[in-house]
């Protein structure tokens, strides 16, 4: 009896120490995020004095420098919420499919949202912000269902390799359809082409307010699915044995990811690889417990997208490199590394 008490006490102490370390990592990540926000409003194609930065943050727009900072503030906010949404949706998709290669871009979800928006603009002349968002969410959801259905055919069900191949093929097919829809429409081709690169430039608080309710619902659903994802990680049979409704848990978790991905694509365009890179890096820090992994992935995604946007402003001065290009340059080598390291096995 005494031995059992000592063992239970040691286990509790270990959990407390582990939670203490994770809390320190969380505070460090928040501090890094604050630093990146400061750099984001201070760095751009125009050099701005720190006095003008602080003045613009307090609401003054008396000169060109302060006006430049005022434009960067909503851009920084959009990068934060979009990065958090993409990082979180990537972690959800990897948990739902138990696939280390799962990502809104690789699984074709981003391109499904893009195709839906392009069809809506070209054929139905949608122009309101809410119409864009609902159309993108519908396209993202349809693409997710289509890829999962294709990947589930044949022996073994939805294996990581089959899902990755189905997603890649779907993404290429949808990309070709986007070109086919846009090609005869010179009046919208320029805007669609620019939007399809993916970026946070030109952000306004009005655009952010339109998308914020959808992202808030997506964040709430995703965070509530943490325990369900922990159960799914044990395998379908064991999760069902523990009383989890596997199909319902998967659908509920996927709904959060689809809302986040679709709404973000509507306002920023398709930004790839962020949902692949961030969950893997966070998993190295916090392990596989989704109660910690999901909030870390959200904060990590916000930080990485913000850092990518800052880098894009610096490396091509006086022009800017869209954040979608920067994340692709980061994500493509990481994708190759994950394939070689994981050998496409299940999580």
From TrEMBL:
GO terms for cellular component: plasma membrane. One of its GO terms (biological process) is siderophore-iron import into cell. It is found in: Cell membrane. CDD domains: TM_ABC_iron-siderophores_like (cd06550). Keywords: Cell membrane, Membrane, Transmembrane, Transmembrane helix, Transport. The chain crosses the membrane at residues 21-43, 73-93, 105-126, 132-151, 163-183, 208-226, 247-272, 292-311, 323-340. It comes from Agrobacterium bohemicum. PANTHER family: FE(3+) DICITRATE TRANSPORT SYSTEM PERMEASE PROTEIN FECC-RELATED (PTHR30472:SF1), FERRIC ENTEROBACTIN TRANSPORT SYSTEM PERMEASE PROTEIN (PTHR30472). Belongs to the binding-protein-dependent transport system permease family. FecCD subfamily. The keyword Transmembrane applies. This is Iron ABC transporter permease. Pfam families: FecCD. It is a multi-pass membrane protein. Signal peptide: none annotated. One of its GO terms (molecular function) is transmembrane transporter activity.
């Amino acid at each position: 009896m005494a031995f059992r008490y000592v063992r239970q006490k040691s286990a509790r102490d270990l959990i407390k120490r582990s939670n203490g370390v994770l809390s320190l990592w969380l505070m460090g990540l928040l501090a890094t995020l604050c630093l990146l926000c400061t750099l984001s409003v201070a760095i751009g194609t125009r050099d701005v004095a720190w006095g003008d930065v602080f003045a613009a943050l307090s609401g003054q727009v008396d000169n060109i420098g302060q006006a430049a900072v005022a434009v960067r503030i909503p851009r920084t906010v959009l990068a934060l919420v979009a990065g958090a949404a993409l990082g979180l949706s990537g972690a959800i998709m990897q948990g739902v499919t138990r696939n280390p290669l799962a990502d809104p871009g690789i699984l074709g979800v981003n391109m499904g949202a893009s195709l839906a928006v392009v069809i809506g603009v070209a054929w139905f002349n949608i122009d309101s912000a809410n119409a864009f968002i609902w159309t993108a969410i519908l396209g993202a959801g349809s693409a997710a269902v289509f890829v999962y259905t294709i990947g589930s055919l044949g022996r073994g069900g939805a294996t990581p390799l089959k899902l990755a191949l189905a997603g890649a093929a779907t993404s290429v097919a949808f990309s070709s359809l986007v070109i086919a829809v846009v090609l005869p429409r010179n009046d919208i081709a320029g805007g669609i082409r620019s939007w399809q690169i993916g970026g946070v430039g030109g952000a306004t608080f009005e655009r952010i307010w339109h998308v914020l309710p959808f992202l808030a619902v997506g964040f709430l659903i995703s965070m509530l699915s943490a325990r369900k994802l922990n159960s799914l990680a044990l395998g379908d049979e064991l999760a069902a044995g523990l009383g989890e409704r596997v199909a319902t848990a998967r659908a509920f978790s996927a709904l959060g990811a689809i809302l986040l991905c679709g709404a973000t694509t509507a306002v920023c365009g398709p930004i790839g690889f962020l949902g692949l890179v961030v969950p893997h890096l966070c998993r190295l820090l916090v392990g596989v417990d989704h109660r910690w992994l999901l909030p870390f992935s959200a904060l990590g995604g916000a930080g990485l997208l913000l850092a990518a946007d800052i880098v894009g402003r610096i490396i091509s001065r006086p022009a800017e490199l869209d954040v979608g290009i920067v994340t692709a340059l980061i994500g493509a080598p990481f994708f190759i590394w994950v394939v070689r390291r994981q050998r496409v096995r299940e999580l």
